[in-house]
Amino acid sequence: MKTKLPSTRDYAQFVTELKQRIASARLHAARAVNRDLILLYWDIGRGILERQEKLGWGQSVVEMLAHDLQKAFPGISGFSARNLWDMRRFYSLYSDPQILRQAVAEFSKIGRSKKLPQPVAEIGTGAPRVTPPEFLRQAVAEIPWGHHLQILNKVEAPAARLFYLRAAAKLGWTRNVLLNQIKARAYERSLAAGKIHNFPAVLPEYLAEQAEEALKSSYNLEFLGIRREVKERELEDRLVERLRDFILELGYGFCFIGRQHRLTLSKKDFFIDLLFYHRFLKALVAVELKVGPFEPEYAGKMDFYLNLLNEKERGPGDNPSIGIILCAEKDDFVVEFSLKTKSNPIGVAEYHLTEKLPKELRGKLPTERQLLAAVKEAIDEKS
């Protein structure tokens, strides 16, 4: 029987499919290994803590345990005394009554906890420690140990720790991205203002939740170093120059496609300020920059752009394109009414070029004009 060679196209497609399958299998295996490791660390931390509390074991037991484990497993790292203390702290954190109540409230919102644990005694001195529910044990296993150490060492508030735990797991943040988000106070900013979008009305529930996670209520563009009024094109130029920082601020999963992306309809050209592709949402993301306050016509323009993207550039298997309008300020009611009739998913968020002052300092520090006047007065006095 005479055989024939496959066509170049068929063979290339077959190789691509195999590569994707192999990469997926390797990723799945790596995640499985990480999950088992985190659950092991959880159980070790639990064992140390419980024996110290119930049997009165002192601190020296950790040093002894580290020595014996390293002797028994000389080729395996991770069993130093310092890491064992971190395992104890890790379990202690998630079995504390305060964070347990917060975890039950948070995870019940997303359906992770169908049966809530028994109420914990009032927080205070001597509050009893309880066994964390299984859904929380499984949730902490979704991110690597290095991520947990970042959260343990740099985040204090229980609600903030749970926020970074969920975000890192859901959005696939690397350790560096997680650290950047902590430094940028992503949790505090998520509380500062509600996210304004129409995702639940125009997207399937599962996709609307993912898109909502990817959108922030505000974006910190302080890294641009802009201290004066700028036009939209200059803002765009500066963002492209600092693209890496901008993508870190947008969040994990955004891949840059281009600026002033051209779309043509009836021989007329239209341009999107910045175009991205989101790997986890599997969707094109159009970003429009506005240096002033939000205006209702911005939503209509974005809806038009998204129709064109879906018609002309949306790939097979891609989800509907998403729009993000970044503006200097917004009125939430105006935004909500503007998005009510739009058929495409659009989110509106503010950006900040300088960090906002804490509430207790607002109105107590001099303005730029007052500072300039004071400097001028001082110069005049000396002259």
Helices and strands in order:
Elements: H1 8-55, H2 60-72, H3 81-94, H4 97-109, H5 134-140, H6 145-154, H7 158-171, H8 175-183, H9 186-192, E1 196-197, H10 199-202, H11 205-214, E2 218-220, H12 232-241, H13 243-250, E3 254-265, E4 268-278, E5 283-293, H14 296-312, E6 322-329, H15 332-339, E7 346-352, H16 368-382
Parallel strand pairs: 2-7, 5-6, 6-7
Antiparallel strand pairs: 1-7, 3-4, 4-5
Helix pairs in contact: 1-3, 6-7, 6-8, 12-13, 14-15
Q: Would you kindly provide a written description of the structure presented here, covering whatever features stand out?
A:
This protein is an alpha/beta fold and 383 residues long. It has two domains: 12-192, no CATH class; 196-361, Trna Endonuclease, Chain: A, domain 1 (3-Layer(aba) Sandwich). The protein contains 16 helices and seven strands. The protein has helices at 8-55, 60-72, 81-94, 97-109, 134-140, 145-154, 158-171, 175-183, 186-192, 199-202, 205-214, 232-241, 243-250, 296-312, 332-339, 368-382, and strands at residues 196-197, 218-220, 254-265, 268-278, 283-293, 322-329, 346-352. Strands 1, 2, 3, 4, 5, 6 and 7 form a seven-stranded mixed β-sheet that branches. Helix 6 (145-154) runs antiparallel to helix 7 (158-171), helix 6 packs parallel to helix 8 and helix 12 packs across helix 13 (243-250). The protein is globular, with a radius of gyration of 26 Å. 26% of the residues are buried.
